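This is your field. Have a critical look at the following sequence-structure pair:

***
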Amino acid sequence: MSRLDVREVPPSERHPMIHEAFEDLEAGESLTIVNDHEPKPLFYEFQAEVDSFDPDGYAVERVAPEKFEATFPKRSG
């Protein structure tokens, strides 16, 4: 599982960085991102645009007031 903390990344650079990291995953792996807000818009973006994204395996947890950890799984096979 890969992990990417984007809290210090400028907002305009976050989504491209996350997409690139996700593309680098092997089938069946997951990308966990750490963000300062719940990444619901990113979830919907992935659901609509990324065929290899497995929305059923998506999970998000608020671990602090401004810290969310979201897991974006890549379909296996």
The mean pLDDT is 96. The longest strand covers residues 67-73. The beta strands are 2-5, 30-35, 59-64, 67-73.
